Fold this protein.
Amino acid sequence: MAGQGGPVGDGPEIFEQGQEFSSGKTAVRIASVAALGGLLFGYDSAVINGAVDSIQEDFGIGNAELGFAVASALLGAAAGAMTAGRIADRIGRIAVMKIAAVLFFVSAFGTGFAHEVWAVVLFRIVGGIGVGVASVIAPAYIAETSPPGIRGRLGSLQQLAIVSGIFASFAVNWLLQWAAGGPNEPLWFGLDAWRWMFLAMALPAVLYGVLAFTIPESPRYLVASHKIPEARRVLSMLLGKKNLEITITRIRETLEREDKPSWRDLRKPTGGLYGIVWVGLGLSIFQQFVGINVIFYYSNVLWQAVGFSADESAVYTVITSVINVLTTLIAIALIDKIGRKPLLLIGSSGMAVTLITMAVIFANATVGPDGNPSLPGASGVIALIAANLFVVAFGMSWGPVVWVLLGEMFPNRIRAAALGLAAAGQWAANWLITVTFPGLREHLGLAYGFYGLCAVLSGLFVWRWVMETKGVSLEDMHGEILREDKAANS
């Protein structure tokens, strides 16, 4: 994070392979606990999918109000992302994880027991703040505690946890809906099944909070806080004892500055944001503008609209989430072998083809008297296959790779501010796509056409602007800013 330097593995390329492997087991365990924030991130983001119709029915709200209620968590996520880095610089990474766990817990009960739509919105925003905090602190912490040889794979654990959380929410939603006979039917203690969908999130929130006590603080934060003996102990656990003092010296050098970290670090001496900051924002916005969360937030509604029953739609949604988990494993296997940029380009191509296919199918669909499209025969099957292939293309590329890049691409002195700004931009873009979709239910061809265009543009953006970071020392991430500063001073 900015002012705290990059991951502890950025300098010690000199560590021996066997040493890195043995210490890598510890890094995997630590990263797995940190990534639990991603599990809650995914669960909280997708749990609304099973409750959309019930919320609209119980509170008697229209499509516009429904869109705002669904997307309200994203407003909190943007706020949480903007502030998480600065707070983590002051009180530590682990403390911020514990705060996120509390926010998830409060959101679970507040939304589950809400009896007015404003309460749903309020507690969804609270949970959203937790999501935003987790979206920043997990990739930053994982990067700061990862050996260089497995940095990409450990960084991908964040996305694996997110998609696992999405799967868990869909599976829990389906089980509760099945047990009650419908999402709006009473289950236990007279509470409707859709309310238990939110209450179930309290369990992983408690687990996340408890496990946060079992992992060490980031060595970068410890050095910045002048806790050198503790930092030395953590570094020794993560990277072994060889060249330990060299590592600590390099960390100290990256932390030396006359002023405190601030948002002003993102601006060039001549004004305007550094180019690398714009690249991070572009990656974040394109990740959302391809419409991935339309599939996860509204898939039940979508597939019912094309002829599937509520139970069939819930099953297909669970299948889609399983596909998302499996394809993320592909990315984890490949990201440190073929690199970040090739995966993004492959993903953009796959997303463009599948989204344009869906756009053509829905543009030619028959619209019934209720305004919903009808896809009889083969067209419905093709749309279902295209939607799942879109998830494959996204899951093996833009889903995990963007989080890895955001954790490692920014120079040490701007990491917290730049990562926070990029994540906030991502949540703002997510909110915009989510809140506008209900109004596009009767124009799905247009909606998917726009997402397909964004997929095409995302590939062009990556080809032109994204730097490959595979095998690049995080200390070398300073190069882009140094070049811009040198140009400004010449």
User: Anything to note?
Assistant: Residues 17-489 form a domain with the Growth Hormone; Chain: A; fold (CATH 1.20.1250.20). The longest helix spans residues 17-46. The beta strands are 366-367, 373-374.
